[in-house]
Structures are given as C-alpha cells and as structure tokens.
Amino acid sequence: MNRDYMRQRTGIARMFGQLAVTLAVGLAVVGATSARAAPPRTVLVMGDSLSAAYGIAPEEGWVALTAARVAQEAPGWRVVNASVSGETTAGGAARIEGELKRNQPEVVVIELGGNDGLRGLPLKQTRANLEKMVSAAKAAGARVLIVGMRMPPNLGKAYTEGFAANFRTVAEAQKVSLLPFFLEPIATDRAAFQPDNIHPVAAAQPKLRDHVWPALAALLK
Q: 49 catalytic, yes or no?
C-alpha cells in the first residue's frame, strides 16, 4: 500500500469516528431534553380542613410537607392539594370529576368523611360518596389511597363503629389502599390540637406526613 492510500484510509476512519461521536452526543442531548420535557406525574389530594391546613400557614400543613418530601424522594412527581375546609364526601363526589380532568393524576388521596361524621350524616350516604370518588379515580386510570377517620365515642357505638368500617369496606370492595386512621399518631395528645380540639397544630403536621408517607410512597413506584 502506498502512503497516499494509507493517508486516505486514515482520514476516512477519522471522519467516521468523529461522526459517531457527534451522533452519540446528539442522542444524549435529545434524551436529556426529552427527560426534562416530560411532564411530572401528579398526586391529587382530595381532603377537608385537615388537609387544607386550617388554622396554620399552608406551607406548614402535612400536604405541603409531603410535597416537599416527594420532590426529594420521588423526582418526577408533584402534589396538587385540592382540599377544601368543611368539605363532606358529597362535596368531594361532586368535585372529583373536574379535578381529575384538570390535573390528570396518577395517584389520588381521598381524605374525606370527617365532616360527615361530625354532622351525623347517614353512614350509607357517606359510603356511597366514597365509592363514587374511588370509582371515578380508577376509571381515570389513577391509583387510590383512602385516608380514614374515626369519630369520638359520644356519637354512639353503632355509629362510630359503622363510620370507621365504611373506609375499610370501600377499600376492600374497590381493591385500593387504605390508611385506617389519619390522626392515629396524635389522637391522644391534646397538645397536638388547636383550641377547637379538631385541627392539628403546625408542630403535629410532620407526624401526619410521616404517618401517610409509607402508604403513599408505595403508590409512587
């Protein structure tokens, strides 16, 4: 082989090598851009005043604290808080279709029912509303976590037991996740509540976040 031929072959090899590097870099850039452009997946929280940070700053509530943890431990997810103070399950059932359409969540957390119990609303009505919300969320392709509540004994044994059973019954029938009692970590600590003895203080919110987190994190995988 003469020198000109060898130089020609070397030049061609170098050209193809540079082209391969350019293509690899280009593909990496495209992949990174696509990853950045991918919209975050959404956790939608449908709750009442316990999730709407009643009486405290919004950023101190358990939902905001959970959103901060999600940002750290589950990149690619975001939390939308659609909770409304005073909301009953009937209100949630009326709103959920709009919230599902607006936010297109992959996970829905339903923390409703407490106001039904405080008002002594019929257990059958509460159960039907919970079923409607869960069914709507599942039909939209979302995974569901029901966050249950319990009522004080002064409402009577039959009502309080039936109330607590509603959440379990719906979760089992619909085959969705259940956290039986939202306030379990602080229920017996009077100092954890505001003067109304219903709404937790800011200092108690991290305990609620930590209580919900294992059940929620399992749905983000």
A: yes
Dihedral Cα 10, 12, 14, 16, nearest 10 deg: -150
196 a catalytic residue: yes
Q: What homologous superfamily is domain 39-217 in, according to CATH?
A: SGNH hydrolase (3.40.50.1110)
What local confidence, expressed as pLDDT, does residue 8 receive?
Answer: 57
Task: Give the distance, in angstroms, between the CA of residue 91 and the centroid of all CA atoms in the same chain.
Answer: 19
The residue among 106, 91, 104, 101 whose CA lies nearest residue 46 is 91
- 34 among known catalytic residues: no
Q: Is 159 left (phi over 0), alpha (psi -120 to 50) or beta?
A: alpha
Question: Where are the chain's structural domains?
Answer: 1-38, 39-217
Q: What is the pLDDT of residues 82-94, one digit of tens each?
A: 999 999 999 999 9
